[in-house]
Amino acid sequence: MRIAVYGASGFTGGLAVAEVRRRGFTPVLVGRDEERLRKAAVAAGAADAEVRVATLDAPGALAGAFADCDAVVNCAGPFTSWGEPVIRAAIAAGRHYVDTSGEQRYIKRILDTYGAEAEAAGVAVVPGLADDGGPGDLIAHLTAGRLPAVEELVVADLRQPGGASRGTARSMAFVEEPLDYVDGAWIPAADHGPASLGVPGSDEEVPVALFGLPGVATVPRHVPARRVRSVIRADVAALFLGLTPDVVESVPEVLDDEARRAGRWLMAARADDGRGGRAEGWVTGPDPYGLTAVIAVEGARRLAADEGRAGATGQGRAGVLTPAQAFDPADFLDFLAPHDVTWQVSAVPGQGTTTR
């Protein structure tokens, strides 16, 4: 299996190349700078990998770089600025596509815009397949499924402050006003919501703030909730909202291995039925950047191997899809268990608990 990694010379892109090689597949590094791509190949342990130079302003060359690959993993952010040309090239080449974006409005725009083109090409496009958007969408679906009806669903990123790459800082500097989903429409988020949330697995309750997570763009497409909103820890929100161009450029381009592996991500979901019924779910794992590469490469592999949700094949998997639409949620989360990922969904007494 040949997997093209666009933005392969970046921090997350290099991890994705290494993961493609670790899985025994053939990586194809694609980007705009041949020298940087070759250095990235060596650093990823794939010195013999093929390097292809293609820029965003040359759509034909970009589609040609993807043409003989089985899937495309796009790691080049900010996606708001650079994501769509890669999607158009993947569709033109007839290749499945995933990306590692966490930018809420970008993900919504892709889900709203490219469905017909992807369906016509017979390919699946799955944006936001990273450590927040992927597991967040999957655990939200499983959590909501514990209730007969959902009045409100809150998706929360409860990870503690930690190291971030310059690419993440650049993407967060592009964060726009967050959205809520209410009564069938996406609207600017209201300035209210839960003031704090309990941290799964502990007695700790932390202040949270409204923030534009991918789940608000993705979850309403497969969960019939009246309202969907997203929050993160208030201290993390303050860090992101304080990013200025000078601060962004002062952030290290990469994290060293020790700092990267010391991080831990935690996505949670809380669903209420409006009548006192509640379900809660969470999924957590180490090494946010390393697991993003694992998640994105596995998603690309499943699309290329035609291992979709509920055994769907062929045209049933074409279009622009959320992670929970493209893949069986529990099966995908279980796949991550060897990487020290655990998850749990629980409901009010009498409705049971599932733990992994």
TrEMBL record:
Domain Saccharopine dehydrogenase NADP binding: 3-126
One Pfam entry name: Sacchrp_dh_NADP
SUPFAM superfamilies registered for this protein in UniProt: NAD(P)-binding Rossmann-fold domains
Full protein name: Saccharopine dehydrogenase NADP-binding domain-containing protein
Native species: Actinoallomurus liliacearum
